[in-house]
Amino acid sequence: MEKFIYVLCSVLALHVWGAGISPAYAEESGAQILPQDEAYVGMDMRFLPAEDASAHPSWTTKTWRARPVLFTVQTVDQDIYHAYCLEITVPSDRNAQIRMGSWDEFMGENAFKSDHDVQQKVAWIVHHSYPARELVDVAQQAGISQLSADQAINATQAAIWHLTDGVSPDFMDFAIHNRDEDTQAILALYHYLLSEKNTGLDEHVLGAEVSIDAPQEMSFAGGLLGPITFHSAVSTVKVDVPEGYSLVADSGEAIDPEHVAIDRPLYVDIRDTDTAGEVTLTAYVESSAYHGSLVTPVISPSAHGQTLVLVQQLVQKSSQDVALRWRSAGDMCRDAQGNVVRDTQTGQIVGKESPLCIVEPGEAEPHQPLPADVSDNSAEDIQVTAQHMPDVELAKTGAEIYLLGSVAGVMVAIGIGSAYREKRRYRVLDKLIE
């Protein structure tokens, strides 16, 4: 049974025309290189040295023509490995004894020996390309619609040799002798594998895990439950959503639970219910963990043949659950007008029992006078009366009535006295005239 185990080969991995590839047996481990599988053969390609290759002792200064292949290695336990090459300049020796070791024990002289960044980037390439990943997934990551095995092998091997030996594929020469679709596919994957997305991998890497951020506060029926955010080292996770519910974006757009993007706030749609409830979401992620080690055919203490860098691919699964509950729509706090009350700090809906549930009184209804109190134009009458009425208070008590009566009596007496005096004066004047 073939396991997901892949290998980097530090020898010249070339398919030479007219020359068969004979099995090589490693006495110490019992491993052997199987006859070449024609499904794992790439296309002939020329490789050019870097313009400043002479300034880099670990880079080759020659032009090479090679047909990359993917080797198949079988261990004594019948485990199957696949191999890409690390060195474009070293001939193979299929009969030497094999020694197991770490990356630091690499016997070659190219950049893989001393540059840890190169080691990590090569590991990332093998981990993210074919056959560690399906062709359709590799094509999607590289931004192309289709990708064949031979195209992937050429692009992957070219990217590795660019890092270890400083060579670059001659795409102009390749385009003359091959189809345009081959050139475009290989070019796209080659640039993707060497892009800034290649952040490198260490010799020992664990598989990715998944975690979930969800609100601690209970929500209410009739809306969107969340936000819920999934986190992982991979770009998407799978989420099990119970029947009758769905994941949506804040806009209400439905989300495919088989491919849920990480680090994006999402919600459970509970707009069609007004009763309390609970839902449990389970997020899954499948990723590869691997352990890398060198398998070196030792010819002599100072010479080596094909060195294999084993990258053991193990599919790991990680999962995380989150339970979300919500209250009924009737538990929401509403003001006198029936509007939902929210916390001014968080924007969360407030429950009836919350001290923040302050119901503001509504506007008082206008006074409706009884028919007997007003005439048909009562409003007009009241307005006029209010404009011309003197600002005098009326008497309200008996004492005030007696006081006013006394004052009136005095005023009357004064008036009578004044009239009597005037009458006497007129009489005196009449006598003087006579």
Automatic annotation (TrEMBL):
Its transmembrane ranges are: 401-420
Record bears the keyword Ribonucleoprotein: no
- Taken from the record, one Pfam family name reads TED
Superkingdom, taxonomy of origin: Bacteria
- Indicate the segments forming the Thioester domain, all copies: 83-198
Keywords for this entry? Answer: Membrane, Transmembrane, Transmembrane helix
Name of protein: Cys-Gln thioester bond-forming surface protein
Q: InterPro entries, from UniProt?
A: Thioester_dom (IPR013552), TQXA_dom (IPR023849)
Q: Which organism is it from?
A: Arcanobacterium buesumense
Q: Does the keyword Transferase apply?
A: no
